[in-house]
Amino acid sequence: MNNSIKLIVSTPFKQYYNLDIRKLITESVVGKIEILPMHSDLITPLKSTLTEFEDINGKRYKFHNSTGLMKVTNDEVKIICEYIEDSIS
Fold first, then answer.
1. pLDDT tens, position by position, for the chain (89 residues)?
2. Type and span of the H or E element at 66
3. Contact at 8 Å (CB) between 54 and 36?
4. Does the reported pTM lie above 0.85?
5. How far apart are CA 71 and CA 8, in angstroms?
6. Are 79 and 51 in contact (CB under 8 A)?
7. Residue among 50, 58, 62 nearest 17 (CA)
8. How many helices (H) and strands (E) does the chain have?
9. Cα(41)–Cα(45) distance, rounded to whole angstroms?
10. What's the rounded Cα separation, in Å, for the pair 19 and 63?
């Protein structure tokens, strides 16, 4: 069983994250969602929200994202939005 999932977060201007993670928590237009390894395929619009994730070493990250899209396929999560603001933990 795979214990990680690849996360790629980008805007039209910059790629912010490209790393392996254990989990991600964000908010789609229908509510909060947690993505773990082996998640089923999904495409969903995202709300402007605080997104959190934990890397494979246990380090936690937070960032504010604008509205955008999230695509989950083959143990990979891609988040594309207009802008990202890093949050201080």
1. 589 999 999 999 999 999 999 999 999 999 999 999 999 999 999 999 999 999 999 999 999 999 999 999 988 999 999 999 986 55
2. none
3. no
4. yes
5. 10
6. yes
7. 62
8. 0, 9
9. 14
10. 15
Q: Which residues contact 77 (CB under 8 A, 6 or more apart)?
A: 5, 6, 7, 8, 21, 24, 35, 39, 70, 71
Q: Are 38 and 10 in contact (CB under 8 A)?
A: no
Interior CA angle at 70 toward 15 and 23, to 5°? Answer: 85
Which tokens sit at 17?
A: 């994250």
From residue 50, alpha-carbon distances to 5, 32, 87 in Å are 20, 10, 8
